[in-house]
Design brief:
Blueprint (H helix, E strand, L loop, with lengths): L2 H23 L5 H20 L2 H8 L10 H22 L6 H24 L29 H16 L6 H25 L3 H7 L10
Length: 218
Amino acid sequence: MSRIKFALRWLLFPLIAGAILFGCAGRWNLPGAWGVLVLLAGFGVALALTADEGLLEERQRPGPGSQDRLTRPASLVAIFAQWVIAGLDARYGWSPVPLAVVLAAVVGYAVCLAGILAAMRANRFYSSVVRVQSERGHSVITRGPYAIVRHPGYAASMLGAICGGLALGSWLAMIPTALFAALFVRRTLLEDRLLIAELPGYADYARHVRYRLIPGVL
């Protein structure tokens, strides 16, 4: 898959999100939503231009052997629900978030996307599924953010979902966000169990880097 094709396919994501958000809201003047959509588009372009080509292919067309068939579709449902709820909340004013919090959340969302990008650039085996990529010479990654926690990309994704919901201006949007976070906590458990059992060196890495998501906590 070419980098241009990846970027174009990615850009469908913020376009669909915008259509849902503004359609449900019935208006365009949602600064937090525009911030999220622009950042999301920029993230996809940056990923397409800088990531390992094998990673891009793996994320679009994962190889066989996935041990988690729930997280990917269920997390997409949670994110779509977040957009719908945030849009309806903007229309009906159920649980508005103060503008200062919205703006701070946009900044937080940018930081989280940068964290995900850093994890993907450090780890060319960052798949969209849970599997050992033997055909790609899968090995343990210990550099960059992986020296701090074992799943930095998942940690940034979870925090990004929280910031994204707040940036959209809806407290109610935190409900599907909680589901999103729970799915990724579960995924870290599944992935650790698989990698400890099947990826040489990962058990030693897990003993050295003790925490999965939050240093000193989890």
